[in-house]
Amino acid sequence: MGTSQHQKAQSRAAIITAASRLFRERGVEAVSVAQIMDAAGMTHGGFPRHFANKQELVNEALASAADEQRVSNGTSSGDFETFANAYLTRQHRDHPETGCVFAALGGEISRAPAETRHVLSERIQRQVEAFGDDPDMQAAALGRWSTLIGAMVLARLVEPEDLSDQIIAAARKFVGLPD
User: Fold this and answer.
1) What pTM was estimated for this model as a whole?
2) Going from the N-terminus, what domains does the chain have, and what CATH number goes with each?
């Protein structure tokens, strides 16, 4: 790959990383292309060299966020306990910009175009398959994962903080994690 192609690939990756972070922090609709490009250290005018439109970037950024979480939290290996221990924490609650794309944007993405929902549906299917190929095992993992996502959404929206902490603690207990 030539230097210009390498630089273009690096720039594209920086845009995806910035978009992924900003979308999870503020929501897809609340973030402009100009804000994303600024966060990536580039000018708005360079955007068309990398993406046809914002929707293409949304799809790639959300896929990247979902893939990043699978690797960073151990879910690619199917280790649910490791995943849940990392997921049900104050750190995750307080930093949606680096956390689960489903908990951060699930409500918004449920109203997104079909192609965006498809991108995340594929990631959900991969995750379910990573938890094992036994249908009962997959159903249990999917139910527990749904509990984690729902708990994180609730923990982020309630006040006061002690109620948020109670939600996280209750979810940890419900899925069988130690205190």
Assistant:
1) 0.90
2) 53-174 (1.10.357.10)
